[in-house]
Amino acid sequence: MAEGQVGPRRRTDPADLAARVRAGETRAVARAISVVEAGGPDATELMQLLAPTSGPAHDAVRPRERSLVAPRVIGVTGPPGAGKSTLINQLVRQERAAERRVAVLAVDPTSPFSGGALLGDRIRMDLHSTDDGVFIRSMATRGHHGGLSAAAFETVTLLRAAGFDTTIVETVGVGQSEVGILSLSDVVLLVLIPGSGDDIQAIKAGVMEIADVYVLNKADRPGIDALERAVRGALGETYLFAADRAHHTVPTDEPGEAPARTGARRESAGVPLTSPVPAIVRTVATDGSGLEDLVTAVERYLAHSLETGALAERRERRFAAAAEDVAVVEIKRWVRERHESGAIQPSELRTALRNALDTIRRHE
Amino acid sequence: MDDAIRILIGKPGLDGHDRGAKYIARALRDAGYEVIYSGIRQTPEALVNMALQEDVDVLGLSLLSGAHNELFPRIMSLLNEKGGDDILVFAGGIIPDEDIPGLKDIGIAEVFPPGSPIQAVIDVIEKWRKDR
Amino acid sequence: MSLHDERNRWEEETLAPVLGKFPERHDGALTTASGLPLERVYVPEDAGLTADESTFRERFGFPGEYPYTRGVQPTMYRGRFWTMRQYAGFGTAEESNERYKYLLNQGQTGLSVAFDLPTQIGYDSDHPMAFGEVGKVGVAIDSLADMETLFANIPLDKVSTSMTINAPAAILLAMYVAVAEKQGVPPDKLRGTIQNDILKEYVARGTYMFPPAPSMRLITNTFAYCTEHMPLWNSISISGYHIREAGSDAVQEVAFTLADAIAYVDAAVHIGLDVDAFAGRLSFFFNASPDLLEEVAKFRAARRMWARILKERFGAKNPRSMAMRFHAQTSGAALTAQQPLNNVVRVTLHALAAVLGGAQSLHTNSYDEALSLPTEQAARTALRTQQILAYESGVANSIDPLAGSYQVESLVDEIEKRATEYIAKIDAAGGMVRAIDDGMIQNEIEESAYRFQREVEEGRRVIVGINKYEVANEPPVDRMKHDAEAEQRQAEEVARVRVHREANAVQTNLARLESAARDTNGDLMEPILECVRSYATLGEISDTLRTVFGEYRQHTAV
Lengths: 364, 132, 558
Hints:
The complex is a heterotrimer.
Chain A: H1 14-22, H2 26-38, H3 41-50, H4 55-61, E1 72-77, H5 84-97, E2 102-108, E3 117-119, E4 134-140, H6 148-161, E5 166-171, H7 176-182, E6 187-192, H8 207-210, E7 213-216, H9 224-235, H10 260-268, E8 279-282, H11 291-308, H12 310-340, H13 346-363
Parallel strand pairs in A: 1-5, 1-6, 2-4, 2-5, 6-7, 7-8
Chain B: E1 6-10, H1 19-30, E2 34-37, H2 44-53, E3 58-63, H3 68-81, E4 88-93, H4 100-105, E5 110-112, H5 118-131
Parallel strand pairs in B: 1-2, 1-3, 3-4, 4-5
Helix pairs in contact in B: 2-3
Chain C: H1 3-21, H2 53-59, E1 83-88, H3 93-105, E2 110-114, H4 117-120, H5 144-150, E3 160-164, H6 169-183, E4 191-194, H7 199-205, H8 212-229, E5 233-234, E6 236-239, H9 241-245, H10 250-270, H11 275-278, E7 282-288, H12 292-313, H13 319-322, E8 326-330, H14 342-356, E9 361-363, H15 376-391, H16 406-428, H17 432-437, H18 440-457, H19 486-500, H20 503-518, H21 525-533, H22 538-549
Parallel strand pairs in C: 1-2, 1-9, 2-3, 3-4, 4-5, 6-7, 7-8, 8-9
Helix pairs in contact in C: 3-5, 6-21, 10-12, 10-16, 12-14, 12-16, 14-15, 20-21, 20-22
């Protein structure tokens, strides 16, 4: 089957689809995401129709324009069994209580062997399965003709166009592509549980650095203090002000500039230097304890990011990353096509690409 | 793969025996599909919402309690009502032969008895893909 | 001292006192079909072998003695056959009552009640979640009124009743006690079992209602109630059956069941119960699966492990606490929808494993299990299978006949070793409740299930009629038909009950239950009994508890 086609079912005209997405029709939003994932001509047309007047695309086009904190993109990651989905269920509940429409995008790895994927922690999210204000969608990491970052970015855009105020992106945080997606969020939550303290060092480099809120879940278990010490240790002793913090950590730290050492590490992992100091929050997601603290931490983080310009910077990067993603995918495709009609030398290719880009620049 | 077919394996009703459903989900993943498993105790409304939000191409229903004659028709009519009538639906579980024609009449493409090989399921999906 | 002397000691010390009360079936004169003499129980010397006496005692011992490898009673089936207990129930209470009376009439010796799924999950028959499920996999019970019908004309002081009920076990137990009261039978005369095993519901069977903490509390409340009021009642049936059906292997079945059991004993000890006061009323429930010798080894290994755990881990003093009594059911997952009559043979083999393994009671599946609920004919054949094993096969005439088989004993040791390793791993993870919460147990079971199924798919494991010796166009078999009107009738019945009871009493009792539930240390059995007696429905009582406890959501993805 040709690329860009969405499954074996009937095609929906992009203009019609865009109109129905704007009307907030669930079925249309769902189909539109599939179209975007497939990355064909329909996707291009659809996104052009949806982008100009919708919120985040607007933000993306003019990232410096600081409007509201909403629509927000909250990234949630952590090892399997950390209770991410239970926590997200609780976050969804909080968002709904605040009368915000919320979408959850669960990203799961595609099997490198079969190309198939087992998607979504549907099981744990069934609380909201009949609430029209909640939209839950699973996405596999591979097989995106338009690139995963672009697909995720455009999905957030169209969810906004459909009237969703918050998007929660969940990943298991194991592969590079998941980390890539997370870095597109406005705020990143890393969920850890007691017993995993020793494994902190084993958490993929790049995840610790980009986390903005450390959620120490299952905090009613023994070993929670050790976990917090391990997190602090991993972050560096100069990082948080351990001495004057209460035994039960809540995000008491007023947002401020990160100490230079940590800030530099975060910066090199792609987090804007202007981003606030990360917070540590203890929760028991199964009974909702600590949820208010978590929500407060997230809100404060976003508010402070907005103030310092970090939020705008992140969104700009999100836009740039998605754009680069698209560019790389398109060029790779073109190269593949060229190879199919006979191998070409890299030097030839360089010349051809540069010429093509010059032409593009002249038309800009 | 170029056009990943998306499949929802759903457990409507109250029975908690999901060994078969989980097996089908994993085996279809291993066959190269993108598969979502609903978890147990889903109402028809919840399953149909999932199928639509996930924009699946295929919905597989697993039921062992004997409530298929009540639950499947409700699922099919909700699917039709909400624009999911182009989704391929198949079913498996403890479903007596004499109930199968009735289930096919309401649009269920195939009913697999316990012990069916996974290839039988794949064949139905692939035939449907080709015929579209 | 030789082992023959040791056997003489056992006959005097352990057997004789029991023989006085419960004589053997034929005054000890049991022989083989050809008249060869049979010992009650064999030792290596009977086969011309010698064994180190202390090793023998430590690993095998004698029936009714620690470590119970060879059986929990000194006489075993030479005194009385196992209880033939066929799981049954469907439709309304009235229909199930008819089936029970039929089964008792056919020589069944104990009742085993199957409840429908709404009952098992605490929904009344007219609840939206019950749609389509009422009376399907068992009988629908909404209130004491249904329970009265279910046991009408069945004297509860004469039968023993097993109830497969877990999340709402306390409520159904209360209903049983209340029905007995109306028959004039006090609780201390009641014999039977409630399954009451919530942990395996989270990992294998799926009929949970509340989160683990309040569920464990309900269980310890029933332990306490039974300890005080129901000395003949098994307050729990810790079940490996469903863990196996979900796809675990034999080692996992033993390990996870014992790990569940450890969690229950821990919880009961934690609230101050003396282990010897309740451990003797714990019972177990295992699967009888196709691999005959492995299964026999499994049952024997489980008994020995439990005895050691109770003695060494919990410091039990009373031998009764250490004796693992178990019910067995033949595997449902091993039966095929294809060529269903082959299942008669399969069930016979499974049942043989349970008998050779020393089960206290047994359910044999009907050959049409993979097709529908059993027809009357299939149910009768299943029961006859047990009767043939008991009366014709001769395997019940000496105790623990496979003991000393090199293979079986080696398998027992290996199962014990591997299961012990699993339990250590679970301990290290913080115990069973936490291991379940983290999805560890579910993952283990799923991996085994998947591996098994792949082997079948790839033809590396042959299932007759499935991947070898298939037939095309099988003739249809008779099936049990569901009564399409049962749901409607039952919904009307519960509505009628709600109108005809004393509304004020119900409200008062439910309010009392709610406040008892909010007091985290309070007993719930008495308040539940009050609710039940006033005809509060199962759904109302469950909803009251849900308000306080919340609901459990499933945790694991595939």
